[in-house]
């Protein structure tokens, strides 16, 4: 009960957003900040189970999931899509390919950022023989991607935000696991939050 009271009190001053991946937060957090200037907006990444638990316990007012949620107590609306790419140096043997599969680079060494939500598990599942050089700090990862010739993952949303990396070729991955549709989910009783967010997105 105490936890629920604290969550309710916090919700009066803060909009808490949980996401399964980083990219949806890049747009959602600024939108909410603009829509609700009198409130703080906090965000974090969690696994899907923790996100749903947090939404039901009111730790979050809004969550982003990689699949639709069928629950009469929740409102679930499609948000956007993300498509994974390989980023390769021009000298890589596969740099001239128009499209690639996970299996094409399985067994190679790759740079991998640790805090990428559900994408981390998908990468390891689909490339079990790859040697992932995992980096915890985004700044260190970015520096390594500039200095190294090792492949790494990027996405259409990352390329839209950050532009094409220098001296790199970005090739889409065709496997189904390289594509995701994101869904915004909130409690049905808080539908106005989600409605305002999505109306703002299409203006």
Give an overview in words.
The relative contact order is 0.21. The protein has 203 residues and is α/β, with parallel strands linked by helices. The strands form 2 sheets. Strands 1, 2, 3, 4, 7, 8 and 9 form a 7-stranded mixed beta sheet that branches. Strands 5-6 form a two-stranded parallel ribbon. The radius of gyration is 19 Å and the shape is elongated. It contains 8 helices and 9 strands. The model has no long low-confidence stretch (mean pLDDT 91). Belongs to the LysR transcriptional regulatory family. One of its GO terms (molecular function) is DNA binding. Pfam families: LysR_substrate.
Summarize the structure.
The chain has 203 residues and is α/β, with parallel strands linked by helices.
SSE layout:
Elements: H1 2-11, E1 14-19, H2 23-35, E2 40-45, H3 48-56, E3 62-65, E4 74-88, H4 102-105, E5 109-113, H5 118-126, E6 131-135, H6 138-147, E7 152-155, H7 156-162, E8 169-172, E9 179-187, H8 191-202
Parallel strand pairs: 1-2, 1-3, 5-6
Antiparallel strand pairs: 3-9, 4-7, 4-8, 4-9
Helix pairs in contact: 2-8
Keywords: DNA-binding, Transcription, Transcription regulation
Protein name: LysR family transcriptional regulator
Pfam families: LysR_substrate
List keywords for this structure.
single chain, 203 residues, alpha/beta, D-Maltodextrin-Binding Protein, domain 2, 2 domains, two-stranded parallel ribbon, 8 helices, 29% strand
The second-level CATH architecture of the largest domain is 3-Layer(aba) Sandwich
Strand content: 25-35%
Poorly predicted regions are none
**What does the main sheet amount to?**
7 strands, mixed
The CATH C-level class name of the largest domain: Alpha Beta
The fourth-level CATH homologous superfamily of the largest domain is Periplasmic binding protein-like II
Shape: elongated
Give helix % range.
Answer: 25-40%
How far the N terminus sits from the C terminus, by CA atoms, comes to 40 Å
User: What is the number of domains?
Assistant: 2
Radius of gyration: 19 Å
Order of helices and strands: HEHEHEEHEHEHEHEEH
Helices, by number, come to 8
Decide which structural class fits the backbone. Answer: alpha/beta
| Number of strand segments | 9
Provide mean pLDDT, rounded.
91
